[in-house]
Design brief:
Length: about 150
């Protein structure tokens, strides 16, 4: 699957980061590692992965604003209990929860719950971008061997 996205260059990285965030069960980190191995610029990898993943999170946010919890849980295969748990936290913490939208398998539920709670769009977008940038920066540093995550 990585080869498919790599063949499209940086556009494939953005598209892959967007799709891999919610549709295709695959690791964005593997795509980033493939981009590095192919000679892509680390800074453009960071920008592309962050843009695609943030677009994915905001897509989930938009879907959350449109739907009800039962329909969304069935469509996106997220347990209603998971979304309800995040909903309580979001109502307490607001858009600040967007900093955690990068969490694998939980980030989608957080983004949907933020949409359902109608958190303000601009703070949600900015905080989500910040959280995802930090995650991908750490991943790039780990992939390049600057430091170890284990």
């Amino acid at each position: 699957m990585t080869e498919f996205f790599l063949a499209m260059g940086y556009g494939g990285l953005v598209l892959g980061s967007w799709l891999l965030g919610w549709i295709v069960p695959f690791s964005t980190e593997l795509l980033m590692a493939g981009c590095l191995a192919t000679g892509f610029s680390p800074w453009l990898i960071l920008a592309g992965a962050t843009f695609g993943a943030t677009a994915s999170g905001m897509t989930m946010y938009g879907i959350g604003r449109l739907g009800n919890i039962g329909w969304l849980a069935k469509l996106l295969r997220i347990k209603p209990e998971t979304m309800a748990r995040y909903d309580v936290k979001i109502r307490k913490n607001g858009a600040w929860m967007a900093l955690l939208a990068w969490i694998p398998y939980g980030g989608e539920a957080i983004s949907i719950a933020m949409g359902m709670a109608h958190t303000r769009v601009v703070p949600t977008l900015l905080l989500m971008t910040l959280g995802k940038t930090f995650r991908y920066l750490l991943m790039l540093l780990a992939i390049t061997g600057v430091f170890s995550l284990v």
